[in-house]
Write a structure and sequence with these properties.
Layout lengths: L6 H4 L4 H22 L9 E5 L3 E4 L8 E5 L4 E7 L3 E5 L5 E5 L3 E3 H13 L7 E5 L3 E4 L8 E5 L4 E11 L17 H5 L21 E9 L4 E5 L3 E3 L3 H4 L6 E12 L9 E10 L11 E8 L4 E8 L4 E8 L12 E7 L4 E3 L6 E3 L2 E9 L2 E5 L27
Antiparallel strand pairs: 1-4, 1-7, 2-3, 4-5, 5-6, 8-11, 8-14, 9-10, 11-12, 12-13, 15-16, 16-17, 17-18, 19-20, 20-23, 21-22, 23-24
């Protein structure tokens, strides 16, 4: 009779001796995985960035202890989501709770970074200084997301202008709807017939508007700020002659010698300036161009050239000259205007634009400003026939 082999013939080791190695391998694998976590950062880490300088609290309650201060732009790691609060950790390792409105998430932060990269090499139209502390927005409009806070007296480069309505439900940028377009959009057909008296009237918006500027500080932080909080860098010597308009740009054309001028080294700069009315929401950047030259006999500025009632657009281009080393280079300047004054605001971005732009170029020959015509134009039009080309005493000149 055949006897079946015993169980031990096929399993010479005990059950306990099998279980111990299995647990040993499992334990070693878990330790290995756990150990790797100490050398590799977790890919699921979530970060937020401080918008409003505030403090961390030790708990979410009406009465809570002050844990740490956090400043604008600081990055915090999110540990836990609560109701209207986030539990976060600072780079120093301090843990506390912060209100959600005081921070932006990684996606919004990346949007600001992309804006800065996009305009990193953009040439400034003009420079300015902030009157007061200013929130910097991702797009024009008070309700758009803001992040950086520029303190008062921050110097910024002005890059681009846009205008949005103060309030327009259902419109992200707050621009006027089709039923409430600015008058400029409705009056372009008659723009060429307008007189100086009603030139501005055709462009006034039918709803309250606000002007915004895209600006960049010295550290490259870029965003939109309210235009009314910007003081454009214009020399006081010519800013006093603005005549109820605001100068939005001043560009040096050349310097002249006048030992009795009281200026350093007896060198006096002469300027090209552009001005705009004290109105917001206009579909152009400036409506007046004016050249100030220095009278070496009376030792004061006078107007050598003025052009009014134009729908002008930045940028203004200037090639400076040097009157102190005759016959040195002659100053040349150019700017763009809307052909037929056909200008309006882009309904999507709020930026001013023209149906067709015309470039006007001028050169200074002594104190006379002459028009430079494009190739093929008739030579009889070489000197522009605008009033104020010949040097004359300014009504606002100093006695």
């Amino acid at each position: 009779m055949h006897t079946p082999p015993s169980q031990n013939a096929y399993f010479p080791v005990s059950r306990s001796s099998v279980t111990r190695p299995a647990f040993a391998w499992l334990f070693a694998a878990l330790m290995l995985l756990t150990g790797c976590g100490h050398f590799r950062p977790s890919s699921s880490a979530e970060y937020v960035y401080v918008v409003t300088p505030t403090f961390l609290r030790d708990r979410v309650a009406i009465v809570a202890n002050h844990v740490a201060d956090v400043k604008n732009g600081e990055r915090l790691q999110v540990l836990e989501h609560g109701r209207r609060f986030l539990k976060v950790k600072t780079p120093e390792g301090t843990v506390g709770w912060i209100e959600e409105p005081a921070v932006i998430d990684q996606g919004e932060f990346d949007t600001f970074q992309n804006l800065a990269r996009q305009y990193a090499n953009e040439q400034p139209i003009v420079n300015a200084v902030l009157y007061a502390d200013q929130n910097v927005h991702i797009a024009p409009g008070r309700k758009t997301q803001h992040f950086y806070v520029f303190p008062a007296n921050t110097q910024v480069a002005m890059l681009e202008r846009a205008s949005v309505a103060r309030a327009a439900p259902g419109n992200v940028l707050g621009l006027p709807t089709a039923a409430a377009k600015p008058r400029a959009m409705r009056a372009n057909a008659h723009a060429g017939k307008s007189s100086k008296k009603n030139f501005l009237q055709q462009f006034l918006p039918s709803v309250p508007m606000e002007d915004w500027w895209l600006v960049r500080d010295v550290d490259g932080h870029t965003g939109w700020v309210l235009a009314r909080n910007l003081q454009v860098d214009v020399p006081n010597d010519v800013a006093q002659y603005a005549e109820n308009e605001k100068m939005v740009g001043a560009y040096m054309l050349r310097t002249v010698e006048d030992p009795d001028s009281g200026k350093p080294g007896g060198k006096v700069p002469e300027y090209l300036t552009v001005l705009t009315p004290y109105k917001e929401g206009l579909p152009f950047d400036f409506d007046q161009v004016r050249v100030f030259t220095w009278d070496t006999r009376r030792h004061r500025y006078g107007t050598a050239f003025r052009q009014r009632d134009v729908a002008g657009f930045f940028p203004v281009k200037v090639t400076p000259g040097d009157a102190s080393s005759a016959p040195g280079p002659v100053p040349v300047f150019s700017f763009q205007i809307a052909a037929g004054n056909a200008a309006s605001l882009d309904p999507q971005t709020g930026t001013p634009h023209a149906t067709q732009l015309e470039t006007l170029t001028y050169r200074m020959e002594g104190n006379l400003v002459r028009r430079v015509l494009p190739p093929g134009a008739k030579s009889v039009l070489a000197e522009h026939s605008m009033p104020g080309h010949r040097k004359r005493r300014s009504r606002h000149a100093k006695p």
